[in-house]
Design brief:
Elements: H1 2-8, E1 17-21, H2 27-34, E2 38-43, H3 46-55, E3 60-63, E4 75-80, H4 90-103, E5 104-114, H5 131-140, E6 143-144, E7 150-152, H6 171-183, E8 194-200
Parallel strand pairs: 1-2, 1-4, 2-3, 4-5
Antiparallel strand pairs: 5-8, 6-8, 7-8
Amino acid sequence: MLDAALARAGVSPRGKRVLDVGCGTGFWTDFYVKRGAVYTGLDIARPSVERLRERYPQQTFVHSDVSEADLGATYEIVNVFDVLYHITDDAKFDAALARLARAVEPGGLLLLTDLFQDSPGLAEHNKMRSLARYRRTLDSLGVRFESAPLEPTHVLLNSDLGFWRFLNRAPGLLLALDRLLIRNGGGRTPRHNQLLLAKRAG
């Protein structure tokens, strides 16, 4: 999914400075490092940062809250997957999104995931925001996206599978099924996570 999105944008990670916000267990760390990126990971959880520093000693890792982080640099790719909807305070959300937009260098890409619609009541620790809310902040900082820029990130992963929840023990199988469903038009409903790809003018 991310490979395809970057290809559509005409961008290869090789040699690019990448900021990965919410690096967590290192899923996207591995993705970018294997593709030759110059990688910086940021996470609010100190144990995650410490583990990743041990696994990837040649890369840079920062322990910080993205709404407060002094990023101090710009990046050609800023990767923010499944992070911003965990910021339930609106002022902190606005601060985080503004910091991320400013961290994208001219001509660089910002990749975000969310439902991109106001969805109250999903969970106390999540607050989804509309595409219009994202657009207002990003436009004001010179980061633009097309009128229909969204692509689904998954269909089954992170979903309540009901009777089929035992499949959560086979994430590789779920990922393969997700890819098949997305290729056939799945994941385009309001309850599925979407990927937004935006670009700062060069």
